[in-house]
Write a structure and sequence with these properties.
It contains three helices and no strands. The protein is mainly alpha-helical. It has one domain. Helix 2 (32-45) runs antiparallel to helix 3 (49-71).
């Protein structure tokens, strides 16, 4: 049986996650990661793993951006 596992690209290379993170931060401020987590959970409950993963990536990107701002 062939190995179908593929390495997931870094979210740093995903301009869509970065753009959506910026939009959520502008609209929801400190709650941006929680909003993205909500949408990730919602799509997970409805069985849409692709959208759930995309929102989880956005939440992680928001947290990375917040961490970077705190360290700067």
């Amino acid at each position: 049986m062939a190995n179908v596992w593929q390495e997931k690209p870094s979210i740093d290379d995903d301009p869509e996650s970065d753009a959506m993170a910026g939009v959520l931060e502008a609209m929801h401020g400190l709650y941006a990661a929680e909003v993205a987590d909500f949408f990730s959970a919602l799509h997970s409950k409805t069985g849409d793993a692709t959208r759930s993963n995309a929102w989880a990536d956005v939440a992680e990107r928001v947290r990375e951006r917040q961490r970077d701002r705190m360290l700067s």
